[in-house]
Amino acid sequence: MRWRDGTCRVAGCRAPVHETDLDHAKAYDRGGTTSGSNLRCLCRKHHNMKSHGHLDDRYLDAPIRHIENYLPPPPFLIELDIVVPRRTA
After folding, report:
1. Spatial separation of the C-alpha atoms in residues 1 and 73, rounded to whole Å
2. Can you give the three-state secondary structure of 27-75, one letter per residue?
3. What was the pLDDT predicted at 88?
4. In this predicted structure, what is the pLDDT of residue 39?
5. CB atoms within 10 A of CB 42
């Protein structure tokens, strides 16, 4: 979740992810699961505001989309010199 969200999910708040709490979008005691689809990062201030009913979901941004491109390793060639001893008669 922390990698996916990148910062606090509240619009305009850029609290770094290491300063955030994982928040259940749908409360656990109301049937919400502890899964990636139901968790989001909120800084402590916004987490407390949400927990006490002072933060509506309309103020939440979508998660930051991270895209990483990986290049495959270059091909390599192994050359083997196999020496077979000659049989002497």
Report:
1. 29
2. CHHHCCCCCCCCEEEEEHHHHHHHHCCCCCHHHECCCCCCCCCCCCCCC
3. 72
4. 92
5. 25
Residue 45's contacts (CB-CB under 8 Å, 6 or more residues apart) are 15
Rounded to two decimals, the pTM is 0.66
What does the chain come to in residues?
Answer: 89
Per-residue pLDDT at 44 exceeds 90: yes
Task: Round the average pLDDT of the chain to a whole number and report it.
Answer: 85
More confident residue, 69 or 29: 29
Cα separation, 41 vs 23, in Å, equals: 6
Q: Which two tokens stand for residue 42?
A: 């909120």
49 residue type, one letter = M
In b/e form, how buried is each residue of 22-37, taking b as 16+ CB within 10 angstroms?
ebbeeeeeeeeeeeee
Measured between alpha carbons, how far is 45 from 52 in angstroms, rounded to an integer? 11
Give the three-state DSSP class for 23: strand
